[in-house]
Write a structure and sequence with these properties.
Elements lengths: L4 H8 L9 E3 L7 E2 L5 E11 L10 H19 L2 E11 L4 H17 L3 E9 L3 E11 L14 E5 L4 H9 L9 H9 L5 H8 L2 E7 L3 H12 L2 E5 L7 H10 L4 H4 L5 E6 L4 H8 L6 E8 L3 E5 L5 E2 L15
Parallel strand pairs: 4-5, 9-12
Antiparallel strand pairs: 1-2, 3-6, 4-6, 7-10, 7-11, 8-10, 9-11, 12-13
Helix pairs in contact: 2-3, 2-6, 4-5
Bound molecules: adenosine-5'-diphosphate (ADP) and magnesium ion (MG).
The site of adenosine-5'-diphosphate (ADP) has 13 residues, from β4 and β5.
Length: 324
């Protein structure tokens, strides 16, 4: 069975709005939305393309989850409170079973964060999903990439390298026996650190979410803030599986270079250290201090023996290697 564009929208995406700040939701030419007084609107869009951002065999529930999770992660990195989302769906065909599972994955995460789907677009073509998330920031309170100062401390939430290891296992590059399904969850159903981002917004001088790898994403903070940093490799929080992978292969740079973890990297002034660590005691995912901001530009990585390591090119760049 195939569905028309309008049936499809109505059946899978048009739910009653749950938020009082939605004046007009799905069904008109525009959504009409109210931003609370004293707040700014944070907006971010992300696109997932089959074959680039996910494998064709990903289950549609996970894909629905991930399409929203990556956008909520951007809001988390600014310390924003998510409110609304729009979804542009390009589908090769309208398969009801696929759409049902996709929308369930999307809606489950939306509900968990009290986010309403307020509009979108549906077209036919190679499977591509664009999600635009909207959130609120108290005026002037959002975390930016540009606020890091010399002497500030660098923290990350959760553990790093899990999604990268799952990807390696999936590509047959590593035979992992430990925690295989847990790792796959990290790749396919990342948990955006929304509450952590909101809590840290009061205290941080800069932040970013780790989508392209710690080295690349911390690099964006350093560039925007016109500073450098040293990260202690052995301080980077690792899961058992990533630690076992390091032991076995000697590749300890995975956690620095692999993307898709969607953890937060947050910079905090030294005076706030105690306050931040006290706050982080309530984070289920944990918060770990991994390095320090310095005047000398660039990112340096220090091994357990105190020696600085040479870093190759880290992180993912969609246009790397293309002629312009
Ligand atoms: P228009 O042609 O005026 O842009 P559409 O026919 O594309 O309107 O969409 C009708 C309504 O359905 C709009 O409110 C639009 O925001 C919504 N919509 C379309 N596709 C989606 C989708 N994939 N998810 C959520 N809402 C959607
Ligand atoms: Mg219209």
């Amino acid at each position: 069975m195939t569905l028309s564009e309008f049936d499809l929208i109505q059946r899978y995406f048009q739910a009653d709005t749950t938020r009082s700040d939605v004046a007009v939701g799905i069904g008109d030419d525009c959504a009409v939305l109210r931003v609370p007084a004293g707040h700014e609107l944070a907006v971010s869009i992300d696109t997932l393309v089959q074959g680039v951002h996910f494998f064709s065999d990903i289950d549609p529930y996970s894909l629905g989850h991930k399409a929203l999770a990556v956008s909520l992660s951007d809001l988390a990195a600014m310390g924003a409170t998510p409110a609304w989302v729009t979804l542009a769906l390009t589908l090769p065909h309208s398969d009801p079973d696929w759409l049902k599972a996709f929308s369930e994955g999307f809606v489950a995460l939306a509900c968990a964060h009290q986010v309403d789907l307020v509009g979108g677009d549906t077209t036919r073509g190679p499977l591509t999903l664009s999600t635009q998330a909207h959130g609120f920031i108290e005026q002037g309170r959002g975390m930016r990439r540009s606020g890091a100062r010399v002497g500030d401390l660098i923290y990350v939430t959760g553990t790093l390298g899990d999604a990268g290891l799952a990807l390696r296992a999936k590509q047959g590059l590593y035979q992992n026996t430990q925690d295989a399904s847990k790792l796959m969850q990290r790749l396919e159903r990342p948990l955006p650190r929304v509450s952590e981002g909101r809590a840290l917004a009061r205290l941080a001088t800069a932040a970013i979410d780790i989508s392209d790898g710690l080295a690349a994403d911390l690099g964006h903070i350093l560039k925007a803030s016109q500073v450098g940093a040293t990260v202690d490799i052995d301080r980077i929080p690792l899961s058992h599986a990533v630690r076992a992978y390091g032991d076995e292969t000697g590749d300890w740079l995975l956690a620095l270079s692999a993307g898709d973890d969607y953890e937060l990297c947050v910079v905090v002034s030294e005076e706030r250290q105690r306050e931040v660590e006290k706050l982080a005691a309530s984070f289920q995912c944990g918060l770990t201090r991994i390095g320090i901001i310095e005047q000398e530009s660039g990112l340096r990585c220090r091994g357990a023996d105190g020696r600085l390591l040479e870093l190759g090119v880290c992180g993912f760049d969609h246009f790397a290697g293309y002629e312009t």
